[in-house]
Amino acid sequence: MSERSEGGIIRAAWRWLTEEPAEQKATWGLETGPSRIAYSDQDNFTTNRVTVADYMDGMVKRNPMGLSATFACVNLLAGTAASLAPSVYRPGPDGVAVEDVNHPLYWVLKLDPNFDQDDYEFWEFMFASVELQGNAYAEKVVNGVGNVTALLPVLNPASMAVRRLSTGDREYSWTQNGVAKVRRQEQMLHIRGMGGDGLKGASTLSVCAGAFSAASSTDTLAREFFTNGVFTSGLLSTDTALDGEQRAKLEKLLQEKFVGAVNAGRPMVLDNGLKWSSLSINPEDAQLLESRKFSGEEICRIFGVPPGMVGYGDKASNWGTGKEVDVLGFEKFTLRKRLRRFERALTKQLLTRVERQSGAYIKFNIEGLLRGDSAGRAAFYQIMVRLGVLTRNEARKLENLPPIEGGDVPIVQMQDIPLAQAVSGIDGGDGQ
């Protein structure tokens, strides 16, 4: 498939989500004695070296993204960050930073990074790469005057080899769609995650392999438990022995009158010594459910996501003020540092030194995420306008409303007079 064929990047992107760095692949295999079993060897089944259960366990452990908690955390982090499109900012005439819509990078960062992807898909992929593999790479496409016109993501960051040259620069080599590529440091955008060796960030899937493996094992146990276990809501018993015909009649009666949501709550009339005993989950089964919950919360800790935001936690943390606190904590302590990492890397690697020295920088628009509900925004604007911090037109601009005549004059609280008039002590019309 051509690298630029329709949908090619999206399909290829999912292939690497479950692939770990080459130097760490052995940690996900099944070890039996001195040799490692290869799951791709089809003769394993015929030679009885691998059972079906072993094969399924291996497949689960090699696919951490198959864990619901992992997928939910990465989807939340990458999707939320991608919704805050970055842009180029420069100092304005009055010293306040303004968005530089005429900068060559404006179109690439905020609208159209490459032929196949829009800005949301591109940034979602890049953030997911850092979360899982610890690194995100994109090849720069530069025109004749040196401006970056496109960013092509490396679809399999786990296969990237980075080495330090004698000149001190870094060299990147990888294979994509069967084509070997080698690029210099200035030709690549490389965003590193936490840890690593200075050349590459540490892969979350490798560093926390034990936690993902334990969660996968718990999921496998639960799947087998619910697949092979015997479950019933209760027992119908009697001291009198029943023959086959009587058993069949009782089973048919239960199926017809007491099974299903429509029959829920229907009273049961019993005679001839029949007794109904309800069954509840036993402690062992309850412990299994608690283990699954713990595994999910442990994955949330790895990614720094409040459990309540991906469906874990108790009811108190999933509604009302508990949810509000989770959202604020997520924005301040989880999302902000990730955005900062990207902002600094983009500013350093995409802007020239002259641009950076002049005060230009790249920033994600987190203000959109911090917007409250309608009542909260109205109260905020009212206070800011009354204090003279915002003009009426500045507040209207934040709500995508057109300016009004006279709305560019700052006013102060009390008499709503122009701020300059209040400062100069000129009479505001009431003799004061």
Q: Would you write up a description of this structure?
A:
Helix 3 (52-61) packs across helix 8 (209-228), helix 4 crosses helix 6 and helix 4 (68-82) runs parallel beside helix 10 (283-303). The model is unreliable at 22-40 (pLDDT under 50). Strand 1 and strand 2 form a beta hairpin. The chain folds into three domains: 1-232 and 282-370, no CATH class; 233-278; 375-432, no CATH class. The termini are far apart. The protein is built from 17 helices and 13 strands. The strands form five sheets. The chain has a three-stranded antiparallel β-sheet. The chain has helices spanning 8-16, 43-46, 52-61, 68-82, 104-110, 119-133, 204-207, 209-228, 244-258, 283-303, 315-318, 320-350, 353-357, 367-370, 374-386, 392-398, 419-424; strands at residues 31-32, 35-36, 86-91, 97-99, 135-142, 148-153, 161-164, 170-176, 179-184, 188-192, 234-237, 275-278, 361-364.
Q: How do you describe this structure in short?
A:
The protein has 432 residues and is of the alpha+beta class. It has helices spanning 8-16, 43-46, 52-61, 68-82, 104-110, 119-133, 204-207, 209-228, 244-258, 283-303, 315-318, 320-350, 353-357, 367-370, 374-386, 392-398, 419-424; strands spanning 31-32, 35-36, 86-91, 97-99, 135-142, 148-153, 161-164, 170-176, 179-184, 188-192, 234-237, 275-278, 361-364. It has 17 helices and 13 strands.
Poorly predicted runs: 22-40
Report the sheet-strand fraction. Answer: 5-15%
Encode the helix/strand succession as letters: HEEHHHEEHHEEEEEEHHEHEHHHHEHHHH
Can you tell me the overall shape? Answer: flat
Tally of separate helices: 17
Number of strands: 13
Rounded radius of gyration (Å)? 31 Å
Which strand order does the major sheet show? Answer: 4-3-13
Assembly level: single chain
